[in-house]
């Protein structure tokens, strides 16, 4: 039981996922700091004279009914920035490296794969019968 757990943990995609989570968390901290320092002040410019920020109030003179738009815009910008950073820093270079350094990366159709299997089986059958012609 412990051997199976160890094999699961040491499988390549589990380790890759753990690294991705750690790196993603680090990027979130960077992007959040950028949003708090740059994006939120820019959004506050569009909030006008309202002390509550960018948004609108459903019932006048009731601050509890204020719907904030600024945090939603900030969250969307954070998501786009994090996705772009992860894609251009991790995904795109890893994909290019995988294409460059892994042999036989071309994608075969089902028919091509079946033809290769058929040819290999015919070759093995010929060897088993002693009819292999070099």
Automatic annotation (TrEMBL):
<keyword id="KW-0812">Transmembrane</keyword>
<keyword id="KW-0813">Transport</keyword>
<feature type="transmembrane region" description="Helical">
    <location>
        <begin position="12"/>
        <end position="34"/>
    </location>
</feature>
<feature type="transmembrane region" description="Helical">
    <location>
        <begin position="69"/>
        <end position="90"/>
    </location>
</feature>
<protein>
    <recommendedName>
        <fullName>Large-conductance mechanosensitive channel</fullName>
    </recommendedName>
</protein>
<comment type="function">
    <text>Channel that opens in response to stretch forces in the membrane lipid bilayer. May participate in the regulation of osmotic pressure changes within the cell.</text>
</comment>
<dbReference type="Pfam" id="PF01741">
    <property type="entry name" value="MscL"/>
</dbReference>
<dbReference type="InterPro" id="IPR036019">
    <property type="entry name" value="MscL_channel"/>
</dbReference>
<keyword id="KW-1003">Cell membrane</keyword>
<comment type="subunit">
    <text>Homopentamer.</text>
</comment>
<keyword id="KW-0407">Ion channel</keyword>
<keyword id="KW-1133">Transmembrane helix</keyword>
<dbReference type="InterPro" id="IPR037673">
    <property type="entry name" value="MSC/AndL"/>
</dbReference>
<keyword id="KW-0472">Membrane</keyword>
<keyword id="KW-0406">Ion transport</keyword>
<dbReference type="InterPro" id="IPR001185">
    <property type="entry name" value="MS_channel"/>
</dbReference>
<comment type="similarity">
    <text>Belongs to the MscL family.</text>
</comment>
<dbReference type="InterPro" id="IPR019823">
    <property type="entry name" value="Mechanosensitive_channel_CS"/>
</dbReference>
């Amino acid at each position: 039981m412990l051997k199976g757990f160890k094999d699961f943990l040491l499988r390549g995609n589990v380790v890759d996922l753990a690294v991705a989570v750690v790196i993603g968390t680090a990027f979130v901290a960077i992007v959040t700091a950028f949003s708090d320092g740059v994006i939120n002040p820019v959004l506050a410019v569009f909030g006008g004279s309202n002390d509550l920020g960018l948004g609108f109030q459903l019932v006048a003179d009731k601050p509890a009914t204020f719907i904030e738009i600024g945090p939603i815009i900030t969250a969307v910008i954070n998501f786009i920035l994090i996705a772009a950073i992860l894609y251009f820093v991790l995904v795109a270079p890893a994909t290019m490296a995988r294409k460059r350094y892994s042999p036989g990366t071309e994608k075969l159709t089902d028919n091509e794969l079946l033809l290769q299997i058929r040819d290999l089986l015919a070759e093995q059958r010929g060897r088993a019968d002693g009819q292999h012609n070099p």
